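Chapter review. Work through the record for histidine kinase before attempting the end-of-chapter questions.
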Amino acid sequence: MTGDKAAQNAWEFTGRRWFFPSALIHELDPDASRSGRRPRRTARDWAVDFASFLLAVLVGLLGAETLSDNRDIPPALVAADQVLGALSCGAVWLRRRLPLGLAAAMVPVGFVSETSGGVAMIALFTLAVHRPFRYVAWVAATQLALVPLYFWWRPDPDLPYPAAIVLLLVLTVAVVGWGMFVRSKRQLMLSLRDRARRAETEARLRAEQAQRLAREAIAREMHDVLAHRLTLLSVHAGALEFRPDAPREEVARAAGVIRESAHEALQDLREIIGVLRAGESDDAGRPQPTLAALETLVAESRQAGTKVVLDQRVGDPAAVPASVGRTAYRIAQECLTNARKHAPGTEVTVAVTGGPGEGLTVTVRNPAPEGDIPHVPGAGQGLIGLTERATLAGGTLEHGPASDGGFRVRARLPWG
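Structure tokens for histidine kinase:
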């Protein structure tokens, strides 16, 4: 696959170096634009410049033949005309580097030298391709203004005076129009390339943002799940540490909770790491808990020694939308985890009310703990994550101290 991609890039680069002019490649290639160096001629540039040189020489030879047939022109003037024509043909190779200077210089040279007429037209075409219209308008208007005077000074032996003027006017306008068409076509190509680059950049930014949001969601899920499991481990391990003389039944029960919680934490961690490796969303793996699993969560907390009162006034928890039920479950889970850490021994009340059309309200409250409770450090990221989770679900979350010194968390979630 890498070799095919390299071959394709090489082919595209070679084709571009042939079919595109160097100025357009310089605009299309950002590395060339940043280098500040003048673009080198491509193979196409050499072919076009050589063809332009041959065309200028051919027109100059036709003009020299016309001068030699006119017996009224002095030989010295004919020789001077041919010298100017030869120098003008050589100047064709400078048309890409100095388009405005060459076109402006060819206005007086083309007026006094008939063999330089082809170079004047080529310079005007190059100016129309490489410079804005205001420069082209000034140079072309000056040439058109000199056309009647030119044919008055050097009348064409084969055409009448009005026909010669009209013919040269039409030729000049056609050259300018052709050059402007080529310029507009190149600008269109540049605009399409710029749009493609912007689209690629926007797509990359959207992908990075989606990846960041997915990882943040996985991080919140990891915090909610593992914090609950590890708190259970800490509580039962602490009970075994401070009560080594506890009955065998209590020790066995605590050891069973520790083993089960460790197993669940490892399984949750394994699933989350698997999601990160696969780059998928956090919907993979086991089904996520909803409001119907709230009673199981409360029973698990009671088994860990936390006094929990569940007041669930939702008739059918399974009818709650999955996203709303999962958010309510995570809010209750995080609040029970915080209560075990910061207010051990207190009775935690979990109230869930609401119905379709009126929304779902989750309230978790605990009184102030009695006695001296050791300070448990915390960064407050759990409550911040809960607030963000509720906001993403379209609801609100309030938390803070209660009037009796306890703590209360209240969330309102939509249930349309």
